Amino acid sequence: MAARILVVDDESRIRDIVCQYLKFEEFSCAEASNGKQAVEMATEGDRPFDLIIMDVMMPFMDGITALRMIREKSDVPVILLTAKGEEYDKIFGFELGADDYVVKPFSPKELIARVKAVLKRVNGGEPEKNEEPYQYKDLVVNPMSYEVTIAGKKLSLTPKEFELLVCFIKNKGSVMTREQLLDEIWGYDFYGDSRTVDTHVKMLRNNLGEYRELIKTVWGVGYRYDEE
According to the UniProt entry, which residues carry 4-aspartylphosphate (predicted)? Predict the structure, then answer.
């Protein structure tokens, strides 16, 4: 069955273009013109959406507020569209649970690539059954339960932050470029924005607190997880 995608934007032209490309890729497409309508459509009905593409700046209810309300009832993947490219906006969206972030004006082909990447990750990104918990001092990472604890206290990491941490641990001691991390965690490289990686690393470090220095910045290249 084709993935069911909700496109939310107050500009009908944008919705038409995005839906046209989605249908060409054999996705099922529904539309909403504001955040309030999106919340109603995303949280009601018999069959849930597989993914939501939602603009941030809209009348009646903006995309950030809509995302917050949707997250109270659903973990459906959400890609935000916005004309703003500042790091603060990205961090705010990611902290609320957005899965990806596309800055307007965007290429429809780029958006479709990101849609496919998010759906692939959600549908096929479960941890391996034989993955054992990782421990360093009182930091414990459990791939099976998606839990990270420090001294027994559970950290509130987003799925992307958790996957990023596990990726660093698996490649401990090796330098990971931003492009490699985009390909590993987000499932795309050419369409990726390296600032997405930097934003998530910053959020992950903040959550790790006293262990933030485990993730080293290798200037001009990327990052390295190092216990030394």
Answer: 55
